[in-house]
Amino acid sequence: MNTETAKAPTELTTAELEALLKNRKASEAKKLEKERAEYEKNRDEKIFAMITTAKALYRELGEFKQFCHIEMDNQAVKLSEYGKIRSNSKGGFSISDIEDTMRVKRRRDTEPAWDERSSKAIELIKEFLSDTIKKRDVKLHEILLSFLERNANGDLEYSRVMDLYKHEDKFDDPRWKEGLRLIKESFSNHLKGFGYEFKFKDDQGHWENILLNFSSL
User: Fold this and answer.
1) pLDDT band for position 87 (50/70/90)?
2) Nearest in space to 120 (alpha carbons), one of 210, 23, 186
3) How many CB atoms neighbour CB 160 within 10 A?
4) Other CB atoms closer than 10 Å to residue 180's CB: what's the count?
5) Listed residue (72, 50, 49, 51) closest to 214, CA to CA
6) Among 95, 90, 86, 129, CA closest to 109
7) Inter-residue contact 96 to 102 (CB < 8 Å)
8) Distance CA 34, CA 17 (A)
9) Which residue from 17, 46, 128, 162 puts its CA 20 to 30 A from 64's CA?
10) Tell me: the pLDDT tens digits for 171-203?
11) Could you give the angle at which helices 158-165 and 174-186 cross, rounded to 10 degrees?
12) Are 106 and 198 in contact (CB under 8 A)?
């Protein structure tokens, strides 16, 4: 038994107290180091397991999307031959089982874009709104300007531009007319790819979605 610890604190010399304190600090530091090492080991094992699984699922999801492409392309050919797909279809369609309890839909995902002419269009429209509409109706001026706001990527928003077109016949100013014409001419819609939706009916006959995010693949 350690004679120092058997003594009352008041009986210990300064050197003994310092040595006792040093040993206690070393013991506590060793305990904390062990706990830290165990925590980090446990954390890193979990991270490794989750990342490894995520990579495997990502790879499988990519393979599954390619499988969907092939199967739905083949089905599109059969539907076309069978006369069950519109001649003007751009690639989007859905198929259901005979009992209508399962459904697969292929979406044609597009991305709207406006070329350099849109900058001149916005300049003309803003000039007209500031010179004319702002003086008569500040609220309308702000509403119409909001339709020309760009998103975080610096692009116009399709839904907002569509709302702007709804006001096309309200004004006859050449700048307004020319601005809207240029925006229309500068617009194009690019095919990003095909997205897929998977649905099934539950026991109550309600459609349930199987949510798989293919957008980044």
Assistant:
1) low
2) 186
3) 14
4) 19
5) 72
6) 90
7) yes
8) 26
9) 46
10) 999 999 999 999 999 999 888 888 999 999 999
11) 140
12) no
Match 């900058």 to its residue by tokens. Answer: 119
CA distances from 147 to 121, 124, 164, 165, 186 (A): 13, 14, 6, 9, 16
What pTM did the predictor assign? 0.60
pLDDT confidence tier of residue 86, bands split at 50, 70 and 90:
low
Map tokens 């062990």 to a residue. Answer: 34
d(CA 148, CA 160): 7
Q: For 42-68, b where at least 16 C-beta lie within 10 A, e where not — what string?
A: eeeeeeeeeeeeeeeeeeeeeeebeeb
User: What strand order describes the sheet that includes 102-114?
Assistant: 93-96, 102-114, 187-201, 207-210
- What distance in Å separates the CA atoms of residue 115 and residue 112, rounded to the nearest whole number? 10
Give the per-residue pLDDT at 69. 93
CB 118 within 8 A of CB 182: yes
State residue 6's pLDDT score: 63
- Per the DSSP assignment, residues forming a β-bridge with 157 are none
Q: List, in order, residues 6 or more apart from 111 with CB less than 8 Å away.
A: 189, 190, 192
Q: Which two tokens stand for residue 117?
A: 């002419």
Q: Where do runs of H (alpha helix) occur along 83-148?
A: 117-128, 134-136, 138-146
> Where are the strands (E) in the chain, listed by range?
93-96, 102-114, 187-201, 207-210
